[in-house]
Amino acid sequence: MAPQSAPGERPLYEPGNVSRPPTIKKLRDIHACFDDDLWSGLLTDAHSRLHLREALISRYFPEHRPQLAVLVAAPPPAPEPEILREEFCTQRDAAFRKTVLQIYDFTCSACGMRVKLEGISLVEAAHIIPFDESQDDRPNNGLALCPNHHRAMDRFLIAPCPDKVHEAGAWQVARRFETRMAAHRDLAALAGRPVIPPSDKEFYPAAASLRWREAPQRQVLTDALNLLALTHSAALTLPVFGEIEPARIAALDDLFAVVSDKFPISPGHTLIIARRPVARFHDLTTAEKARLLVWIDWTQQLLAINLSPSPDAFNLGLNDGPAAGQTMLQLHFHVIPRYAGDVPDPRGGIRRVIPAKAKYWDGA
Predict the structure, then answer these.
(1) 188 and 303, same structural domain?
(2) Which domain holds residue 121?
(3) Is 334 annotated in the active site?
(4) Rounded to whole angstroms, how far apart are CA atoms 26 and 30?
(5) What is the pLDDT of residue 334?
(6) Which of the four pLDDT bands, split at 50, 70 and 90, describes residue 130?
(7) N or C of the chain: less Cβ packing under 10 Å?
(8) What are the pLDDT digits (tens) for 225-284?
(9) Which of 136, 18, 12, 24 is nearest to 86 (CA)?
(10) Which residues fall within 8 angstroms of residue 290, CB to CB, at 6 or more apart?
(11) Dist CA 153 CA 83 (whole Å)
């Protein structure tokens, strides 16, 4: 910041020039302004101002931090070990909250709750990647969430993750929820649901932010599934399929069993079988459909690691009803490893269920 003289006069101070101290009369007539580079490069940026403010408080006014925090609308530090509570982070920018709530129209992006009365909203602004990890206050690193879903996301019980169908992402849910308990049911039901997006696509959650949330969620699921795969050693009875020998069981949970096919098309041919009596895909619950996708992904990874040589590709699918070729009337999904050269011409893949229609590429 440099002191300036009255309009039309030279500056009282110029870098590199030595001058005598100004008189009291002179000081009454001057004003000060920030250096252009300092103003444009530092003080117009919210994050830079925050760091500068923190440095000044730490150096000169540490004993007055709580009072100063109130003045700048930033709560004092409150560490919470082992739990991500970024909503209480001292560096949270109030502008972030205002912007995120407005672009989501004060609506929870998980459950759709919207309560706004006399300026009071029950929805909160949440960082997808916590601010203390990313220093990212951009709106596309934010979601509007009700308090329950906000805290569930902070604890990685739910996570907005990338999705091929829904551009704003879809929710994944930790496997710890017991769907038979009413208190767990609402959170468990989020599995596979799309993130309720803001009205403007410009502010859809950033792909990098969704991937950050997906990574630990995927790891938790994978670790849990690996544990089940390693510890299961008893025979299992499944509807329609009957007793499955332990040697055929790769893994299972409360909804599905992953077993090797008794009559494999190729080495590693695996079935993912529903554990409750259910024949058709449309009869699965939302939670079961979401879990089935997790098992499909897990099974592919398992086969890619354990088979030698590793598969070049996979056929994934199910026969949904007798007219589609289903002979075992219990829902089961096929994961079939494929190798280059295992058939003379693999083109068409699943289209070959109706041979006359398979070769669409030559008009046959």
Answers:
(1) no
(2) 77-211
(3) no
(4) 7
(5) 96
(6) confident
(7) C
(8) 554 544 455 678 999 999 999 889 988 888 999 999 999 999 999 999 999 999 999 999
(9) 136
(10) 172, 173, 191, 192
(11) 11
Q: What single letter denotes the amino acid at residue 272? A: I
Number of domains, the chain? 2
pLDDT band at 38 (very low <50, low <70, confident <90, very high): low
Tell me which of 127, 149, 166, 332 is the catalytic residue.
332
From residue 28, give the alpha-carbon distance in Å to each of 1, 3, 287.
Answer: 17, 11, 73
Q: Are residues 207 and 239 in the same domain?
A: no
Which residues make beta-bridge pairs with 172? Answer: 159
276 CB burial (10 A radius; 0-12, 13-18, 19+):
middle
Kindly state whether residue 240 falls inside one of the protein's structural domains: yes
pTM above 0.70, yes or no: no
pLDDT in tens, 285-337: 988 999 999 899 888 888 887 888 888 899 999 999 999 999 999 999 999 99
In this predicted model, what pLDDT tens digit does every residue of 136-161 receive, in sequence order? 888 999 999 999 899 888 888 889 99
Tokens 């020039």, located at residue: 17
Q: Is 190 helix (H, G, I), strand (E, B) or coil?
A: coil
Same domain, 159 and 262: no
Structure tokens at 264: 């494999």
**CA gap 161, 176 in Å, rounded:** 18
Residue 361 identity: W
Residue 340 tokens, joined:
């280059």
Tokens standing for residue 68: 């100063």
The tokens for 236 are: 């299992």
Domain CATH code at residue 243: 3.30.428.10
